[in-house]
Amino acid sequence: MRVLFFGSDEFALDSLARLAESSHLLVGVVGKPDRPSGRGLKALPTPVVDRASGMSLSVWQPECLAESGLTEVINAHEWDVGVVAAYGGLIPEWLLSLPHFGFMNVHPSLLPRYRGAAPIERAIMNGASITGVTTFKMNERLDAGDILLHEEEPIYEDDTAGTLRQRLARIGAALLVDTLDSLEAGSVEAVPQEEDRATEAPPIKSEEGNIDWRQPAESLDRLVRALTPEPGAYTYFRGKRIKMWSTRITDVPQENEPGTIQNMGKEGFLVNTGSNCLRPVLLQPEGKSRMGDAEFSRGQRITSGESFTREP
């Protein structure tokens, strides 16, 4: 089949590469416009646009998916299906109905669970043990179209959003090609989603990363893993923001108010939570590099009884 690919961030790169290697014809890529990035705010392409350009593919970067902005794509190429993977924008109704096979999406959850922009982060935050990837036929509603194929994947106790995303991206790439093969052969049946089982995965807000030490250690550990590498869970110490990169749940019971530090000398330190103590394994003070808890404790000369707080 002739495929027009819509994608933006790194999750879509495996799908793009796998599609290019398949028997299907990749006629071009629609991506987001270059955006200011880095300290110099230089306009840089998204990962998908950068990769597609390196593959000598035709690339279009309309500011919005208005009919006028896609005239060149529509008139210059024949395409049978649109494929969307981490594009970061809604496909308008006029465009959904254009190709013969419509549009299909590669979504990193087991739909109808976790519809929305942050399915990976929300699954980890909620303590889910299983997730996966779903391919589905797109309609005008967000992530609500009929399911084509899906594949499950466990969530491990040490998974971060970053490690889980990498695995799901690889799974999604293979599932995408299998779905296109099945659509072409007419061997897959689209199944409506069970609306009564649907849950939402709204975008992550920065303030969600502000650690509330009154929560149980298990919940805080999941929060740190869900927000790693971005946007990051954080707390404050002596008025400075501290980013938490990795934590470990301990069997040491709470001995003081949540947020209060228990210094262990050369071994680092623990933090009281709403349940057992949590150990910050890897953290990053504002304006500095990442470091272990023992190095942080030595550098700051932490004493027992000091606290991490939610405000500077």
Structure overview:
- The structure is a single chain.
- This protein is an alpha/beta fold and 312 residues long.
- The protein folds into two domains: 2-197, Rossmann fold (3-Layer(aba) Sandwich), CATH 3.40.50.170; 206-300, Roll (Methionyl-tRNA Fmet Formyltransferase, Chain A, domain 2), CATH 3.10.25.
- The chain is built from eight helices and 15 strands.
- It has helices spanning 13-21, 47-54, 71-76, 93-96, 119-125, 161-185, 217-226, 293-300, and strands spanning 2-7, 25-30, 35-37, 42-44, 59-60, 81-85, 103-107, 130-137, 147-154, 233-237, 240-249, 261-263, 269-271, 278-285, 291-292.
- The chain has a seven-stranded mixed β-sheet.
- Helix 1 runs parallel beside helix 6 and helix 5 runs antiparallel to helix 7 (217-226).
- The termini are far apart.
- The mean pLDDT is 95.
Rounded to an integer in angstroms, the radius of gyration calculated over CA atoms is 23 Å
- First-to-last CA distance: 56 Å
- CATH class category name of the largest domain: Alpha Beta
Please report the total strand number as a whole number: 15
CATH superfamily of the largest domain: Formyl transferase, N-terminal domain
Furnish the topology, listing elements before pairings.
Elements lengths: L1 E6 L5 H9 L3 E6 L4 E3 L4 E3 L2 H8 L4 E2 L10 H6 L4 E5 L7 H4 L6 E5 L11 H7 L4 E8 L9 E8 L6 H25 L31 H10 L6 E5 L2 E10 L11 E3 L5 E3 L6 E8 L5 E2 H8 L12
